[in-house]
């Protein structure tokens, strides 16, 4: 029996009002806790290949490099989480970056991201998981390639300072919940199977 094709998961952090970040706020809106950071570290040990665009690559590669410095200012849990990302296989979609990429275990793809991911799902195994990269996530959802849609919702509303609205430009998507969990008594993980739909759902 042949190996199973790869599963694609869009993986996002989000404020309650739908933003990926906020001006003047720290990473994770300053609300990350030990349970969440320990979970991130464990996720980093799984058979995941991380997918991201050029902007996310630049930010995360820089943070990972800082975390390797003893005087970085990161907590032990934050450093372990970022260090785990360096060890994971990563695919970077960009027409502007050039090889060799400085972040270890990074593969550069300069062609069409949707078609490349479609082929990766067919030919690879394990889980393909996005990191940040909102436009990439939006394109993959719209193409119907996403098997799991996972959010960690942070309990903050950033109506004044919020940046990077996550759902702008999305198609309509029906979501069937398959998992949920609370971290540190305040962060909510929600995992769904998504289906792009052409018309509003009707109650039977």
Automatic annotation (TrEMBL):
InterPro entries: DHFR-like_dom_sf (IPR024072), RibDG_C (IPR002734), Riboflavin_Biosynth_HTPR (IPR050765). One of its GO terms (biological process) is riboflavin biosynthetic process. SUPFAM superfamilies: Dihydrofolate reductase-like (SSF53597). Signal peptide: none annotated. It comes from the Bacteria. Residues 7-188 form the Bacterial bifunctional deaminase-reductase C-terminal domain. GO terms for molecular function: 5-amino-6-(5-phosphoribosylamino)uracil reductase activity. PANTHER family: BIFUNCTIONAL DEAMINASE-REDUCTASE DOMAIN PROTEIN (PTHR38011:SF2), DIHYDROFOLATE REDUCTASE FAMILY PROTEIN (AFU_ORTHOLOGUE AFUA_8G06820) (PTHR38011). This is Deaminase.
């Amino acid at each position: 029996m042949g190996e199973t094709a790869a599963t694609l998961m869009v993986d996002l952090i989000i404020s309650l009002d739908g933003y990926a970040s906020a001006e003047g706020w720290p990473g994770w809106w300053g609300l990350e806790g030990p349970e969440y950071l320990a979970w991130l570290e464990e996720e980093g040990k799984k058979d995941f290949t991380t997918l991201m665009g050029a902007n996310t690559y630049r930010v995360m590669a820089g943070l990972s490099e800082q975390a390797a410095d003893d005087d970085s200012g990161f907590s032990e849990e934050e450093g372990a989480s970022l260090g785990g990302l360096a060890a994971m296989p990563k695919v970077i979609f960009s027409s502007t970056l050039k090889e060799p990429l400085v972040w270890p275990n990074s593969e550069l793809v300069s062609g069409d991201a949707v078609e490349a991911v479609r082929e990766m799902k067919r030919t690879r195994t394990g889980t393909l998981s996005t990191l940040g990269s909102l436009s990439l996530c939006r394109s993959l959802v719209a193409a119907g390639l996403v098997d799991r849609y996972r959010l960690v919702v942070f309990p903050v509303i950033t109506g004044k300072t919020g940046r990077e609205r996550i759902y702008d430009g999305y198609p309509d998507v029906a979501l069937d919940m398959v998992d949920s969990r609370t971290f540190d008594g305040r962060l909510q993980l929600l995992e769904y199977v998504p289906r792009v739909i052409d018309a509003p759902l009707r109650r039977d």
